[in-house]
Amino acid sequence: RGEDGKIYGIPQLSPTGGPVSSIAVRKDLLNAQGIALPTTPDELYAALVKLKAAYPDMIPLTTSDQCDLPSILSAFSGYQSWLEQDGKYLPIQLRDSYRDYIAFVRKLYEEGLLDAEFPANDSATRLSKFTSGKAVMTFFGSWEGPGFYSALETAVPGAQVAYLPFLKDAKGVA
């Protein structure tokens, strides 16, 4: 807040023209199973269950200890650091809807759809699991691009990558 009591912010554009972070997906594996890119949490859950059954030696979704999953979070709380709730600005983690996000991620973890080692993964480990062909999906930041694609192509020739859109909530809003 400024001294005048007003809240100010400086908007910024993403260097990629899109989201700065998302979830990278092995599109070739989704295609092989007839799965469209998920657009809701329910579709993502169903896709991960199907992928786990089809590729039991692969991790359906990996991330690291420092990564929220913005593509998923968008369906629960939006992906803004601070949002208005009941006339007050709250950090996203204190919003009521954030609990639903945590419950969804917990469900993924408990059902073996989220990497059991994610709390111990650092960024390099998370990326390595994906680019070596051990994981179907991973958190991806636009800053990670240069070595990401070449590492995947070397390990898994012909692999295709797509990016999860921000998932929509029950009202169709991301």
What does this structure look like?
By secondary structure, the chain is α+β, with helices and mostly antiparallel strands. Helix content is 34%, strand content 16%. It has helices at residues 27-32, 41-54, 70-73, 96-110, 123-131, 145-155; strands at residues 21-26, 59-62, 82-85, 88-91, 135-141, 161-163. The strands form 2 sheets. The protein has a 4-stranded mixed β-sheet with strand order 2-5-1-6. The protein has a two-stranded antiparallel sheet with strand order 3-4. Strand 3 and strand 4 (88-91) form a beta hairpin. Helix 5 (123-131) runs parallel beside helix 6. The protein starts with 20 loop residues before the first strand and ends in an 11-residue tail after the last strand. The relative contact order is 0.22.
Mean pLDDT across the residues is: 85
* Uncertain stretches of 5 or more adjacent residues: 13-18
Strand order of the largest sheet: 2-5-1-6
Into which percentage range does the β-strand content fall?
15-25%
Subunit arrangement of the protein? single chain
| Structural class determined from secondary elements | alpha+beta
| Spatial shape | globular
The total of helices stands at 6
Number of strand elements? 6
Rg over CA atoms: 17 Å
What is the share of helical residues?
25-40%
Largest sheet: number of strands, sense, barrel closure: 4 strands, mixed
Q: What is the H/E order?
A: EHHEHEEHHEHE
**C-alpha end-to-end distance:** 27 Å
Task: Annotate the secondary structure layout.
Layout: E1 21-26, H1 27-32, H2 41-54, E2 59-62, H3 70-73, E3 82-85, E4 88-91, H4 96-110, H5 123-131, E5 135-141, H6 145-155, E6 161-163
